[in-house]
Amino acid sequence: MTGTSGPSRQPAEGDLDWPVTVDERGVTEIRVHGVGGGSPTAMLDDPTARQITGDRVAGVWRGLDWRVEGRSRWHREVYSWGGLTSKALSSALWLILLPFALVNLAGWMALGGRGRETGPANWLIVVQQNMTRVVGLGVTWLYLIFSAQMSMDLGAWQCARTTCRADGVWKWLHLDGHPHGAAAVAAVIPVAQILVMARLTAVSKRRYDEHGAPATSTPATERVAPADLARITMSSPHFWTARTYDEPARRIHLASSVLVIAFLLLSVAKAGGKFSDVVRAAWFVVGALLAVAVVCAAWDGLRRVVAERSAAPVYATAGLALGAAWLAVSVQPAGTPAEAGIMPGIVGFFDVVLVVIYLAGLLHGVVAVAGLRQVRALNNWAKPAWFPAPIVALVVAVAMTLAVGSGIVVWVARWLSPEAAPTSGEQLWQLSYPVSYTASAQLNVTGVLAVVVGFAVVAGISVRRRRREPDVALAAEFAVWKRYEALPGWQHLAGDERDGRWLRSVRTWLWLAGAARWLENLVIAVVLLSSGCLVAYAVWAFAEWRGSGFPVTLAICGIVLLFGAGVCAFTAAGTARHPHAVRLGAITAFAAGLALVVRVADRGLPEAGADPPPLDVPWLFGEAIATTVLALIPVAGVLLLRRAIRSDSTRRAVGVAWDITTFWPRGFHPLAPPSYAQRAVPDLVHRTTALLSNGNAVLLCGHSQGAALTAAALAQLTGLEEEHRARLSVVTYGNPLGHLYMRWFPTYVNEAFVDECLAVPAGNSWVNFYRHTDPVGRELFRKASPECRATEPAAGRDCWLPDPPTDLMRPGDGPPRIRQHGNGGYLWQSAAAAHLVHEAHRLESLTRRSSPMTEQVAVPEAGAGEEALIAFALTCPPDADLYAQALSRWEQTGSIEGDLETLRAALAGAQRQHRWTGTSIFGSAPFDRDPFVLALVERIRELSGGTVQRRQEI
């Protein structure tokens, strides 16, 4: 483009500041890849594919057009979203926050009646989701407690008074023997952790979340009321708008995290003795604010109040509390307190947080069981698991946080001082940590390993039996294979002379296709065993603890449990009548219970006879081994995800669970990894509506997780006009909606959701292809057709594809391969390929009926600039073959031959071949000065008489 103050700017490949214009007339096929995806060139099987929309993270790529009845009217595009989950280093770092993602997932797994946008919400779903938010807040605090335990307690409070690897730092800072000052300095580390979490959420909001708002929504600077997640459905216009989910919760989590550090600092200041009355009063105030944060997490009404107010007072209050706490610690005298041990307040606060998490989880579990019964009564063909899935997600999140966090703390303690031990720290020279940390590490590692080994043995026996049993599972495949007669020299591998080894491999893959249920039961078994071990240890520890702390603790738990049960009951009544008054009373009672916990923690439990001794059981892993294994889990996870970013095979192996985990918006934990669907779904909706609004047709093709994105986009297109619906068709393959999503997320993905999406394309033109060997993609509509005929009207049906497609083998060839879940294996199978061709021809005929006759396009004058030539070239679909033929003839004879339409296609092909590099691939001349291009334009001008008819056939 030529400017007035400088040389012309040449557009470069991938330079998305330069507008890319492509021909959109006819049918546009948009492929959406699945887990791990693949490069756009591989998806389109076209090395010349180029990006036409989006950025380096996600966008639409287009390859060469295919012809329909001799015309280039079948445009092939792929929406590439893999960069949203696997192109940045931060994607690997997000794995450290996997427990947050599991908590968020548990909220979307809430069990109960189907979501409704009008009328009273299902109280079962309301209670589960509110308790999930409470557990999520507790897990965030556990992260900070473990960080404070390593930095403020072990590295500062204890190391400042004894010999350890960090004592040189405190001597250099003149803080040796001054544990209060050391703890104040070390508080910088957990505060920095909070700032990093805030920064990550801010970056993700810009990269992912701001794409989710519809065009008619309020500006980004205005506040949006939080969505009612117990009523909202995936067809809601604001379902993928981040501001309706995480802004109030983000304030609560970040501000309360700062208050946690302030609370710990004030607990340390209380032990110093200076300004004790003022410090105690401040300690009570901060504790009350933390209780309010828990109430905010559990009460929708109070969260809405937080959302409607400015964030400045919330963050300012937390900042002032932290500053006051830091000042209170800094003024404490050196050498106090005289007794050794763990930093004051941290173990007590840890216990209180665990009580809140466990009781919220218990209430959640009781209600989830009732919700599971309600879901089963809905006669949904995709029955949920026998054990409530949200409980599993919550328990795994909490157990993972406790196990890994305690393992890292113990490992750090032993690194700082080899003499560190799980005792009360009676010796000044000895670092100490809670006994429960080592017990948690040992029980979790041993229990998980025992369950995994047991399941491996059972799975091996099952596979062995499947490989030897009769071919009942292959009955459908045998029926298809027998239809094909063997050509001379060919043989049926499943005929009379069967290749037993090949059939055994097919049976093995059929068994692996059902491995999702095995993994589901494995996780449930791990959850039950880990929970049982921790409960058993708690009972044993209380029995060993001979003091009067046991009944007091039980009394606290009982009181909070009663108040929590009141919240549950009142919430159920509140959804029917007088919700605000009833809920206010329930939350007040719950806050009173929390205040009681804070008060008892302040006064301290009565003196106990002795701490529970460390576990010394022969069949348990040793403390050193267990804690080392747990400490290496985050490092191994980051390395695994980094390898997955670079390796397709590893990415596919770990991608299924990760992509499902990050599919849902951050509605229940604002610090969870961002939802890629909040960017991908609006992108698909905008591209589809833009094409349909111009009279063109769209063929959406979704594979694996791309099928879930396609369905989510269809839910957002329920308001399409009838004329546009007629020019929309959908094909999914390897689709996890029926097999996984309807089983794990029945509140949001259910039969009503599928029927709503099915009605978007006119005539229910949605076909779902699946295989028995596919572990992810299965039936969706339960209308399987044994005969997949391309000419059959597509009326929302499942189409089964045999795998392998045939058992015929030619001498010298290998046996037919098993295609399983692969993208290419579906598209290259004859039934699916024939259906795509049939749909492209059907949709193309609809676009020709609605297209105008002609459109006049002016031919650039001689010597016209680059911009005019490019615009002119794009008025006709490019044809690389015609370009190559015309160029070869011109080089040999020096003449340009052909009719007007052929030469225009050749010129567009020339522009395509230049690939926006600005120079000829046969020389150094710019595109608008290339001799062949100038000759071609001149010949077109002679044939057209100065104008060009852009024809659109009727």
TrEMBL record:
Membrane-crossing segments per the record: 92-111, 123-146, 180-198, 252-269, 281-302, 314-334, 346-370, 391-413, 441-461, 522-543, 549-572, 584-601, 621-641
Keyword S-adenosyl-L-methionine in annotation: no
Domain of life, source organism: Bacteria
Transmembrane helix keyword on record: yes
InterPro entries named in the record: AB_hydrolase_fold
Keywords from the named record: Membrane, Transmembrane, Transmembrane helix
The protein's name in its UniProt record: PE-PPE domain-containing protein
Organism of provenance: Paractinoplanes brasiliensis
Lineage per the UniProt record: Bacteria, Bacillati, Actinomycetota, Actinomycetes, Micromonosporales
